[in-house]
Structure formats: C-alpha cells, structure tokens
Amino acid sequence: MRKSFFVGFLVICLLLISQVALGFSTPEVQARGGETTLMFVGDKGLQLSTEYGVTSEVGLCVAIRKDATKVGAKYEFDSNLALLLGAIDQAPFIGANLFLPLDEYMGFIGDLSLSLASNRLSAQLELGVVLDLVDNLDLRGGLLAETDQDGKNFSFQIGLGVNY
Q1: Are 62 and 71 a contacting pair, CB within 8 Å?
Q2: Is the pTM of this model over 0.85?
Q3: Farthest CA pair distance, the chain
Q4: What are the contacts of 120-126 at 24+ separation with CB within 8 A?
Q5: pLDDT tens, residue by residue, 96-144
C-alpha cells in the first residue's frame, strides 16, 4: 500500500509541474558534451549511465548496473530520432531513441533495444519523466521493461541527471 501510494504521488507531482518531458534521454547528440544519470532501478539497485558526443551526430554511451552492462554508439538522424548500436553483456544490440514533442516543454521519449544472446532475442524498453530542477540538473522517473529467456521484468526507476 505504501509503495503504490508513493509511486502514484510521485507521478502525479511530476505531471503537474511545468517543463516536464517523458523519457530518460533525448536523441540529440551534443558535440563535446553529454549527460550522466544515476538511477535507482527497482530490485536491480543503482544504474550509472553516461553519454558523450564525439561530433554533433555521433555519441558514445555506457550504462552499468549490477546485472548488466551496456556499451554502444548513438547516431542522431534528427533531433527526434537516433539509432543505437553496441553490446549488452557481450551480446550485440540495436536500438532506437525517439522523441515526440507535445509543446515547448513537454514530449514523449522512448528507448527500445533489441539484443541477441545465445540465439535468444531479448528486448529492453524505457519510458519515463524528466523534470528540470535547474539548468544542468534534472529529476527522472519512469518504467524499465525487459524480456529475455528468464521471462518479463518491470521495474520503476527514479534518479538524477546532469547535462554538461
């Protein structure tokens, strides 16, 4: 009861405050800049993610948590779509990062990754809310959905992001 009340209260608060965008990272790549996030992911513990733009279209990204490591590259097609390629725990993955703006301050963001490990397909989908606290610091929360040979797993995520 307490957990569902807390999650519901947090979601309502985040949706009622202005300058909110749904998702964890945008498809945009910043040359010589990027973003670092520290998220608490349900039963999986802490996740540290960072992204750095090598050029204005190509960036490198790394995400580390106790049960998975994701290393890849991001190619920005435009400010609304990016292609991701790399490895999740030594298995190749391909993914997409999408942004659909609703207005000047709000939009939908999603990150979908498909991986092939031991001839078995697994998928990872992230959706959530990003709330700007100050210029370079934001509060993030959302849902991580994963499927693999062990089954399906849904986790709530909350954390902070720093843009540089």
Answers
A1: yes
A2: no
A3: 47
A4: 120/148, 120/149, 122/88, 122/91, 122/146, 122/147, 122/148, 122/149, 123/147, 124/88, 124/95, 126/23, 126/24, 126/157
A5: 988 777 766 566 778 999 998 778 889 999 898 777 777 787 878 788 8
